[in-house]
């Protein structure tokens, strides 16, 4: 796909402020396309005093956000703090199509009612990262609905099937004779048209969104606009350190979870994964994080540095006091430790519902009692409070605790 510059203007010199802004923009990113173009956009913005228009679109396919979602929101906040106009776009129209990115089957489209319900919480949760007073919130039904049949046909004429099939997941499905519905081809076109409607200078997204973001560049060119630049952020690994963070995989940290739960989950990540979380989630300077690394290499306990990360994240989504309380709770539980003689048992049926697991491990008399204990915050897995009654525990070995005295080390297969 062509990502060449469409601007033939005389190159502007890059001031120290622009160089610094470029450094901030590039921190932790997977790709910035095209960096030289974006540098010129920053320089023109500085010269004119006109902020860049920076767009992030999220489809409200689920009601809650987790820390994985905040990787790209953090980048938006950094750019917002540089004085640029960030646009939080809720894809209420595109949700009805269903983003096929990275999928090998057709995603069932959501109903208007489902989308409306999920959208209610999206911006309020995103506002825990972004400054809501400086954030433009838009819904893409504003310009997608008025397109109508004629407009959709005219838009579709601006892109070829061959270009759409360049997308890897479409190619794989086509070659394996896996069905692709026609409406799925519309998704990248509609996402690209959002960039035209918003006159976007920069669009952010996860690495799985690269193709869709580049379609936006191409459509802007077709509509005679200056092309947006593309910034892709890595997909954050979950608590297991392997799979990307996902509620369905049970390896997530929800941004509305209790502070104590968030803290304990963050403390459970590996010492190696801690640096990845620092890079993608922390607002500390790169110089501070580099110093932390040197301190650990020099003998400082990595646990101390992990505590600082956990406190920062809990304070961001709750309060400084909540972070202090979470640390105190964690230390208190750490002192209590896990008894040396806890029962060890093996269970099958992974992924196994939390209620069944507690019953089969003889930690609760029934599944209903188990779910009540979860609801009351009395269940922990590897020290983290479990609040999701629908949780399915994946294969592996975990320490399960019910109340203060019931423990079991369960190996689930």
TrEMBL record:
ATP binds at residue 247. Residues 352-413 form the RNA-binding S4 domain. The keyword Membrane does not apply. SMART domains: S4 (SM00363). A motif ('KMSKS' region) lies at residues 244-248. It is an enzyme of class 6 (ligase). The keyword Metal-binding does not apply. One of its GO terms (biological process) is tyrosyl-tRNA aminoacylation. Its main location: cytoplasm. It catalyses: tRNA(Tyr) + L-tyrosine + ATP = L-tyrosyl-tRNA(Tyr) + AMP + diphosphate + H(+). It is found in: Cytoplasm. Coiled coil: none annotated. One of its GO terms (molecular function) is RNA binding. Its EC number is 6.1.1.1. Keywords: Aminoacyl-tRNA synthetase, ATP-binding, Cytoplasm, Ligase, Nucleotide-binding, Protein biosynthesis, RNA-binding. Homodimer. Belongs to the class-I aminoacyl-tRNA synthetase family. TyrS type 2 subfamily. NCBIfam families: tyrS. This is Tyrosine--tRNA ligase. The lineage of its organism: Bacteria, Pseudomonadati, Pseudomonadota, Betaproteobacteria, Burkholderiales.
């Amino acid at each position: 796909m062509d990502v060449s510059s469409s601007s033939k203007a005389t190159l502007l010199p890059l001031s120290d402020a622009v160089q610094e802004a470029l450094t901030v923009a590039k921190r932790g990113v997977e790709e910035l396309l095209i960096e030289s173009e974006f540098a010129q956009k920053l320089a023109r913005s500085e010269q004119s005093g006109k902020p860049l228009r920076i767009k992030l679109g999220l489809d409200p396919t689920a009601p809650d956000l987790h820390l994985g979602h905040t990787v790209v929101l953090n980048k938006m906040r950094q750019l917002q703090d540089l004085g640029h106009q960030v646009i939080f776009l809720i894809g209420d129209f595109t949700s009805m199509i269903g983003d096929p990115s990275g999928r090998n089957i057709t995603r069932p489209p959501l109903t208007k009612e489902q989308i409306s319900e999920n959208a209610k919480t999206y911006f309020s949760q995103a506002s825990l990262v972004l400054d809501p007073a400086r954030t433009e919130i838009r819904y893409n039904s504003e310009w997608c609905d008025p397109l109508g049949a004629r407009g959709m046909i005219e838009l579709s004429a601006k892109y070829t099937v061959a270009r759409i099939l360049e997308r890897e997941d479409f190619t794989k499905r086509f070659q394996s004779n896996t069905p692709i519905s026609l409406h799925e081809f519309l998704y990248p076109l509609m996402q690209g048209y959002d960039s035209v409607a918003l006159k976007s200078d920069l669009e952010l997204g996860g690495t799985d969104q690269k193709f869709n973001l580049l379609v936006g560049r191409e459509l802007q060119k077709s509509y005679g606009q200056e092309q947006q630049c593309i910034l892709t952020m890595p997909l954050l690994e979950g608590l297991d350190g392997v799979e990307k963070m996902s509620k369905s995989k049970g390896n997530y940290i929800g941004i509305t979870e209790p502070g104590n739960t968030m803290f304990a989950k963050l403390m459970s990540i590996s010492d190696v994964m801690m640096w990845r979380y620092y890079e993608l989630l922390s607002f500390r300077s790169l110089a501070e994080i580099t110093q932390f690394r040197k301190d650990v290499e020099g003998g400082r306990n990595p646990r101390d540095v992990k505590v600082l990360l956990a406190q920062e994240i809990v304070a961001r989504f709750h309060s400084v006091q909540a972070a202090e309380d979470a640390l105190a709770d964690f230390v208190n539980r750490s002192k209590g430790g896990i008894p040396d003689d806890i029962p060890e048992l093996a269970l099958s049926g992974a992924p196994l519902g939390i209620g069944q697991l507690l019953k089969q491990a003889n930690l609760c008399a029934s599944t209903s009692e188990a779910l009540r204990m979860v609801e009351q915050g009395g269940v922990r897995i590897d020290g983290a409070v479990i609040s999701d009654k629908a949780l399915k525990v994946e294969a592996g070995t975990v320490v399960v605790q019910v109340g203060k005295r019931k423990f079991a080390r369960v190996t689930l297969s």
